[in-house]
Amino acid sequence: MSQKEKVKKNERFKMLYSYREYAGKEFDRLIVYFASGGLVFTTGFVKNIIDIKACTNTTLLKLAWIFFTFSLITILISHLSSKKSMDLEIKGSILPSDQWDILTKFLNFTAFISLITGIVLFIVFLLNNI
After folding, report:
1. Would you say residue 128 has pLDDT above 90?
2. Total number of domains constituting the chain
């Protein structure tokens, strides 16, 4: 491989890494926006549209709120674990950094699943009460 090809490959790697980093940040933001928006929307919807006193079972609604809140808390913890992973990588501790990175990915996945669960629970609540 020529020097020119190596430079081009390195530039492409840097560009892909930059896009990956951006996508990760946007994923976190979207989870926060949707989960907090879900809490605000469902609270306002129940307050203004549905007569909560007429609902026979509010368990689904409460569970939806719990999952939205859990999603927010999980993504906040994910930020801390991501920061820890980067700090360790900067110090040259690759293995511990990788372990924190695995935790971060798990927390992001958990936040996503919690968000989807909250949305589904709220939709089921609406279908049962409208």
Report:
1. no
2. 1
